[in-house]
Amino acid sequence: MTDITNTPTSEYDAQLGDYFALLKPRVMSLVVFTAFVGLLAAPVSVNPVIGFCAILFIAIGGGASGALNMWWDADIDAVMRRTRGRPIPSGRVQPGEALTLGVALSGLSVMMLALATNLLAGGMLLFTILFYAVFYTMWLKRLTPQNIVIGGAAGAFPPVIGWVAATGSLSVEAWLMFALIFMWTPPHFWALALFMRSDYDDAKVPMLTVTHGRPATRLHIFVYTVLLAALAIGTAFTAIGGIFYFAVALVLNAAFLLGAYRIWKRDEVMAEGDDYAEERKFFRLSLAYLFLHFGAILGEAALRTFGLGGW
After folding, report:
1. What is the CATH number of the domain that holds 139?
2. What angle separates helix 147-156 from helix 25-41, to the nearest 10 degrees?
3. Domain span at 122
4. How buried is residue 82: exposed, middle or buried, by Cβ count under 10 Å (0-12/13-18/19+)?
5. Same domain, 176 and 164
6. Is the terminal CB of the chain with fewer CB neighbours within 10 Å at N or C?
7. What role does this protein play (predicted)?
8. CA separation for the pair 158, 293 (Å, rounded)
């Protein structure tokens, strides 16, 4: 990590929105939603106040991870076009402030989640923060082209934590939700890397597009999408699935597989000719893909409360 503590500040002081931006609110929305689904998909009833507190503290923990990530990666963010406007590289927030905010929110979220729900949930949130901020951000991201594959586990833990907050225990269903996000993460980020490769080149981040080239990346996207589709459709036949989820999964995975196949069959001449239109389309689809899958799991949970759902 490059020391940028002497980065000139901007002509205005940091605003509340700058500190909020450190928490990566768009990523936090995924954390909140998947944790919420994990909480409600659990086969127990949860007190609404406890449920609200659980989601709040999981969200704060996710935001803390984002702040720590931005603190450590400020040198990379300053180089990449996609991230150079973030609070630290733009000079609106000092690195030390981001570190303090991240550590403070980490401690607060873990302690309060453990008190509001159970020790296992608090421990899993602590592990998730450490995994993302230390194992992924400080080590894997700059070490291996498999950074996204392994690091994706951090983003896959929120529904598990939500489930544990509700039940106090782990189960196969919780790990199925984990697996959906884990397998979704590589094709999602590799699609982004295909049309943002110069950023990773400039920042010297060993993304797969940089180390193995774009043809290999396209093949990896297709292979992971095939495996993801099998997992996603198979989930329909578990305790968190059902007919409604199955119908949603069939449509989504057919579209996702088609998109991955089209990317696999393209070359750089084709991609550059239309400004990576297929890759951008696949990336946008991947966002809807995950939200709609978890929405279908939530729909099945709602149906079961009325004695419906399942098979």
Report:
1. 1.10.357.140
2. 60
3. 14-168
4. exposed
5. no
6. C
7. Converts heme B (protoheme IX) to heme O by substitution of the vinyl group on carbon 2 of heme B porphyrin ring with a hydroxyethyl farnesyl side group.
8. 15
Range of weakest confidence among 54-58, 193-197, 253-257: 193-197
CA 133 to chain CA centroid, Å, is 13
As a residue count, the chain comes to 311
| Beta carbons within 8 Å of 33's beta carbon, 6+ residues apart | 291, 294
Can you give the pTM of this predicted structure? 0.91
pLDDT in tens, 157-184: 999 999 999 999 999 999 999 999 999 9
Q: The tokens of 205 are what?
A: 């981040």
Instruction: Give the CA distances from residue 175 to residues 2, 53, 121, 132, 182, in Å, rounded to whole numbers and listed in that order.
Output: 37, 22, 14, 18, 10
Q: Which pLDDT score is estimated for 224?
A: 97
Encoded tokens for 105: 């929110």
Task: Tell me the three state secondary structure of residue 226.
Answer: helix
DSSP 92: S
The three-class DSSP label of residue 57 is helix
Residue 188 dihedral angles phi and psi, to the nearest 5°: -60, -50
Residues 6+ apart with CB under 8 A from 221: 186, 187, 190, 191, 260, 263, 264, 282
Q: How far apart are CA 35 and CA 13, in angstroms?
A: 34
Assess whether 175 and 164 both reside in one domain.
no
